[in-house]
Amino acid sequence: MKSFNKLVEKLREIIAEENIELEAEMKNYTSFRVGGPADVLVTPTSKKEVSDIIKLCKNEKIPFYIIGNGSNIIVKDGGIRGLVIKLSKLKKITIEEDKLIGEAGATLSSASIAAREACLTGLEFACGIPGSIGGALAMNAGAYDGEMSFIVDSAVVLDINGNLLNLNKEQLELEYRNSIVLKKGYIALEVTFALKHGDCEKIRNRMNELTKRRTEKQPLEYPSAGSTFKRPEGHYASKLIQDSELKGVSVGGAEVSVKHSGFIINKDNATAQDILDLIGLVQKTVKTKFDVDLYPEVRIIGEDKK
What we know:
With about 300 residues, this protein is α+β, with helices and mostly antiparallel strands. The chain has ten helices and 19 strands. The strands form six sheets. A five-stranded antiparallel beta sheet has the order 6-7-13-11-12.
């Protein structure tokens, strides 16, 4: 950590000491509950702090990684060299007529609740998605016949040099589990949703229905990152996995959920390597049986344990 002393000193000029953590165990910051230590983890509280931190990293040639709620990543057991910027404290949500503006660190589920309370429809599908608004934009997250591209109006992002950009919907290039944010390494800071005024009771009932379906069909009682694989064209990943007789198959503490085969879960103190090995086993088996390639929906970052 000696090489980071200078970086930490400069970070203290940008953000409060309490928002800087050294040797941060990433298993405490990811929904999979796995991952080794990051050299430095910071939790900025404003867009300017994020921009200033990124410019500092660029100047000092320090690698950095952006995470939101940690719900769609696997951090390897060796941890992360460099800086992790966690956006969870950028969580303000405001409503202006039929627009909802959410900072990147707010959860998508909290945005759906805010929309419900304002009797705005369009975000019902997101009521059980644990990810952050920024991560959901980057991945064009979706569920139950809804997705971000249907309701996003615009976004404020940072480019790789820390410059603020205002992008409209077309410029965001939202497509299946992808966007300009991922393509160009941008950092989403704020998203504006274009919603519609609706019937409060219908909105509430729809969210209750989707919550019930999630609870019944998904293994929410175990740590996971939600659906592990992207949907292959012409197929459903969960059906391919189930038809490959992989339900309940485990590697170490990781398991293909018996409740929903599209989920790999941390059932019993799994390591990141357990999860990655199981992902590999599933990919190989499905490829052999059906000649279909499965690609992870989760982002994999960090280093292997030495």
